[in-house]
Design goal:
homodimer, Tetracycline Repressor, domain 2, 215 residues, Arc Repressor Mutant, subunit A, elongated, 2 domains, 0% strand, 75% helix, DNA-binding
Chain lengths: 215, 215
DNA sequence: GTCTATATTAGGATAGAC
DNA sequence: GTCTATCCTAATATAGAC
């Protein structure tokens, strides 16, 4: 993470906003320049095109999400922290949603991102499996053979495509909070069928937590 | 579904193949013309551009998938038919995968497809909920409040994005059969936690079924 | 670093002969 | 219906002055 010039910083910031709100396909490098009132030539001086900007934005995202994901590794999470953990992951993804809404075409267009993103998916899957293992060890969750692994994979898929699906279905269309909340709720609904011996009081906590977040 | 000229038919067929194998972003209308050895001008005589072709392809897909989805409505499915049902849906989607791999950008570029696709999602969700209700009535499945509805929604999301996720993760990369099989398997793994009183013998059947399909 | 002006290209689109 | 030839446009990219 090298220090950036003021202008570079502003370009990235402006680009991220435009891409998230208008979508990758709608935005050209000229648009980015226009919005921040600099010339296209100037923008090209700093970044040689839209894709270079996106690559740099992704690098930023990667460092942040890696930090977030490693939370339960660094120190085991307390019960309620698990829900919050899911929220934080979603918020991070939301801040970078243009990428998740155009995954296929972006990874095709900027091939060097593909292996990086694949590694991120692996990391996420591992993080989820670790989290589930913790709850299994404390007998809050119970799994049959393979169920834990496949659930962690499904959760990874869910987090990757929830925003795209939610926008399509019109879930939380006008309210990001709702969209994220529903995403967490749907994730949790995949976990609760595996509740084990110690999870009864958990249920109370969870209900409270979910109510809080809505209000 | 009006009758089409020989050439129109061939254009659609060629386009579908190219789009599925190379991806929407890679293929231009000129490519389609080139592959079938006709001139771009000629292609334009039949279809005014790539997006018109895609719209027509989607219309075809829509009629087919609607037919498939309505299966459990027309006549309630026998036990094993439920698995096969999921397979058939996936196969239909696979035949039109370019669309599912670039959903966001395609629906942005061809706005009239958006409401159509949204209706398709609703239909799929309803079909799944119906199927689950059947298995609930026969006490093969058991659900708590809301669980059935949210599961049907999750299954819809799963079917919509599985192919994209599988390609990213490299699941069944070289073998469509494997990719689809894993998709069905993952779908089923969301259902089995809800097994009810009558589903023990079901488990046997399912295991057999899954083994068959792999071999 | 920033500007204006211009070049390049790829893809979408049409005109008119056969 | 099909071809060849050409045009148009939007987006990328660079050159050279300030």
């Amino acid at each position: 993470m090298v220090a950036r010039s003021k202008t570079k910083e502003k370009i990235l910031h402006t680009a991220l906003g435009l891409l998230n709100n208008e979508g990758d396909t709608q935005i050209t490098s000229v648009d980015i320049a226009a919005v921040m009132s600099i010339s296209p030539g100037n923008l090209y001086y700093h970044y040689k095109g839209k894709d270079v900007i996106i690559a740099e934005l992704f690098a930023d995202f990667e460092t942040e999400i890696r930090q977030v994901l490693s939370a339960p590794v660094t120190k085991p999470l307390a019960l309620e922290d698990n829900w919050i953990y899911l929220y934080i992951i979603f918020e991070e993804i939301y801040d970078f949603r243009f990428f998740y809404l155009n995954l296929t075409s972006l990874l095709e267009r900027i091939p060097e991102l593909r292996p990086k993103f694949k590694r991120l998916l692996s990391l996420m899957q591992t993080a989820f499996e670790l989290l589930l293992s913790g709850l299994e060890a404390s007998e809050h969750l119970y799994f049959r053979t393979d169920e834990k692994h496949i659930l962690s994979e499904r959760l990874t898929q869910h987090f990757t495509y929830w925003l795209a699906y939610a926008s399509l279905r019109g879930i939380g269309a006008k309210n990001p909070k709702t969209m994220i909340h529903e995403g967490v709720y749907t994730a949790l609904s995949q976990i609760t069928p595996h509740w084990g011996a110690n999870s009864e009081p958990y249920a109370e906590l969870l209900r409270d937590f979910l109510d809080e977040q809505v209000g």
